[in-house]
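Appendix C. Worked example: Alkaline/neutral invertase
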Amino acid sequence: MVDKHFSPEAVKSPDLPDGPQNISIDAAHPLSQTAASDSTIARNSPGPVEYEDTESAALNSPNSLQSGPTQKDVIGSPLETMGCKTLNAENSSSPDIIKQGSENVERPSPSTEEKEEGAAAEKLRKKTTFSNEVSDNVKATLKPCPSMSSNLNNYDGSEDSTPQVNASPMMEEAWERLKKSYVYYKGKPVGTLAAMDPSAETLNYNQVFVRDFVPSGLACLMESPMDSDIVRNFLLKTLHLQGWEKRIDNFTLGEGVMPASFRVLFDTAQGKENLLADFGGSAIGRVAPVDSGFWWIILLRSYTKCTHDYSLAELPIVQKGMKLILNLCLSDGFDTFPTLLCADGCSMIDRRMGIYGYPIEIQALFYFALRCAQQLLKPERDGKEFIERIDKRIRALSFHIREYYWLDHSQLNIIYRYKTEEYSHTAVNKFNVIPESIPDWVFDFIPLRGGYFIGNVSPARMDFRWFLVGNCIAILSSLATPSQATAIMDLIDERWEDLIGEMPLKIAYPALEGHEWRIVTGFDPKNTRWSYHNGGSWPVLLWLLTAACIKTGRPQTAKRAIELVEKRLSKDGWPEYYDGKSGRYIGKQARKYQTWSISGYLIAKMMIENPANISMISFEEDKKIEKPRLSRSSSF
Ligand code: GLC
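Step 2, the predicted output written as structure tokens:
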């Protein structure tokens, strides 16, 4: 396939990625064959696997689902099955038709004044509801389960002393684009497209990615009035997809695996919509997304905390879905570490980047999801046992990460002086890391003030690279102790040029170059130095930085980053990522109008204007586990 990004004359700058930049291996993605045009309808190919919509009842009636997800479908056929076209806000049959019970109710589009009036009334209603809730501290109609009640009732985002964010033209544009990216299934919004770039090949960017939907979902929950339906629908729809039998070649994936992405297709022959999901079987590298299930649990908590709608999390299928996800991670095996062993490319960085093993992003999300599940699981029947297993794992995991992943000036000095070949439980250098393996750049990068969780720890291997997602999630979930969280923010301040540069934010630092790039990425032409996952800058990460800044009491740092984003993001067409050491150039293969760049900006703004919004996605400090009780040498 010819790569449309091929440009032999590509101008080089010392700041720009090098290597064989002009080949796109993404172009070989199976989806690209149909994705070129969403409206392409080929009649001769076999239709997609039949999907029976057993959960649509749940979309219509929150409380009607009592049985577990059915296993109707086998994923084995590639997604280039034809006969279908993708539906989204633009071509959905009738986004304005709301199903109420069995009736279709036509909703006329409200005028601007009506919308404003409606919004004001909704605000007032929320305010009244909130003060009622506060006065008796109990939600009259929705009774949270015991494990949810204490921690999930304190979201006060609807307390409307909230300054409504002044809708700047950039915010207005962002909202408009976000709404346009809605994907509808049977007339109901169920997610957002990854990107809507009319000028680039769609590949799989015309799908709803679970991880990409998280900032979109949070934006809808923070919106005033709140648009929680899409979040609820998304959670139910993806849960249903989890129930599919997931087979790649002859191998069946674990029951709990959540899809990386899904799409809605219209089968013209049968005149109905179908869903097609990708569990990694069509992804580059064929790796299942470990992060999807964790993000799903995290978003479920945000939804519950924000709406006080406990009925969703209490549904037996939702409880079961959570347990299936957790089962994949909590089951006994050969592990000697509480961290989760992963394949390369199983998260946001979904290509080979040397993050196999125990990557910080997954460990932090794992910890976050465990803490959310702790609040959401009902302690009935096997729920109690799950909660106990979670409690134990949280303790072990937090100790392990806080101790062995933490790097600051004094810790680096300790590693630098490590003895090797120590035997027995008294070993200080437990993983037998050879000091000579510490890369030179780390010595310059580590400031006297500040620290961070390194990328990966496993036998004789410490990946010293900085990864933003893992570190920010560690702050939000309180995996980082308060002093570690402060030190991470100090590091960001001290290393602003490297980690933020001209366009927030570096996904990883530093980039792999030369021989290392060849060995670690396998000559990946998309991940050349300072590009894409290899040291590229991703605007979506702004929301994670902002949340971490608010949590650590550093809103000024977030404001500085937001200002940088505002200088260019909209003008540049909301790209997916930027290239170059300081993030000066729009990414070589970046999609424009990337939805999570848009929604990430929106929620960063809404959090900075109303810091109460952060409680939707963060945990309060847990004083009891603030300091590891065990010391390095006595933990085993
Ligand atoms: C790319 C990114 C991945 C993202 C997807 C959709 O594959 O690496 O993190 O989810 O695009 O935006």
